[in-house]
Design goal:
two-stranded antiparallel ribbon; 25% strand; 103 residues; alpha+beta; single chain
C-alpha cells in the first residue's frame, strides 16, 4: 500500500482541491493508499521538510514533481496542466504519476 503525504499550508486556497483530486485519482485507479496530511506551519518546518509549495504530493518520501532548490518557504505551488498553470495537479496528472508506482 502506498503512503502519500499531502503537504500544505492554510494560506493556500488550492490544497483542498488538490486533495480532492488525489482522492478521485486513487478511487479511479482502484489504488489502496494511506493519505497523510502534513501541515507546514512555519518557515523552519518548510526548510526542514524541503517544502516545494502547497499542495505538494510525496509518495514514500519522494515528491511526485521533484525540484531542486536551496531555499524552501511557505508558498503556493503551481502545476503545468494541459489547460495552463493551475494551483493543483489535475486528476489525470495525478493518475499519470501514481500509475507506475502501483505496478
Amino acid at each position: 500500500m502506498l503512503t502519500i503525504e499531502v503537504l500544505f499550508f492554510d494560506g493556500c486556497p488550492s490544497w483542498k482541491t488538490g486533495l480532492a483530486n488525489l482522492e478521485t485519482a486513487l478511487d479511479e485507479l482502484g489504488a489502496p493508499a494511506k493519505v497523510r496530511l502534513v501541515q507546514v506551519e512555519d518557515p523552519e518546518l518548510a526548510q526542514r521538510e524541503r517544502f516545494l509549495g502547497s499542495p505538494s504530493f510525496r509518495v514514500n518520501g519522494a515528491d511526485l514533481w521533484p525540484e531542486e532548490r536551496s531555499q524552501y518557504a511557505l508558498s503556493c505551488r503551481v502545476y503545468a496542466a494541459p489547460e495552463g498553470l493551475l494551483g493543483y495537479p489535475t486528476v489525470e496528472m495525478l493518475k499519470e504519476k501514481l500509475r507506475p508506482l502501483l505496478l
